Amino acid sequence: MTASATLAIDVISDVVCPWCYIGKRFLEQALALKPEIPVEVRFRPYFLNPWVPREGISREEYLVTKFGSVARYNANNQRVVDAAAHVGLPYAREKILRQPNTLDCHRLIFWASQIGMAAALKQRLMSLYFAEGADLTDREVLVKAAAECGLDPDRVRELLASDTDVDTVTQAAEQAKAAGIDGVPTFIFNGVVAVSGAQSPEYLVSAMERSIAEREKRSTQAAE
User: Fold this and answer.
1) CA–CA separation, 174 vs 2, rounded Å?
2) What is the CATH number of the domain that holds 106?
């Protein structure tokens, strides 16, 4: 297996985005449909709510500010809850009491990527938020999640207390915005095929195959 044969999949998403939560599961199902295709999944940061302060705000304040009222949000959000349940993902929105700024979450995922555990930590953070209503502004919640995914808790605690990789993560998120990505999740296959939204596993498989065909076409043209 060569590096050039590996399908690179960049996933631009945020851990508090419910469609990103569902979209990650769809991607996993798509990959399971095509186990013969070697892939490298890279999780890229996106700030769904960059205006939320680092310390977070109450969930009620967030919903009122962004959607007008809690009741309006719940009425419109039921289809997302149902979509999550359909793919076996718990979404206990009544448990969510704090809306976090996700900069530190993305820093954790970036550090986890250095030991091949980005997907596991991404999933853990999403599960904490959507299924358990955990406060992702609580540093010890983040440290525990990181430790569960193989990172050294003392080192993570030290890093979170510093500004390490704040600029790295922020710049990556800003690059996504500058590239025109204004909705997440967005999946980019081999840098040539982009898919926006939580699309079905079958649709994602089609995008995978199209990106591979495009890579082969470009390789052939370059050799001529």
Assistant:
1) 31
2) 3.40.30.10
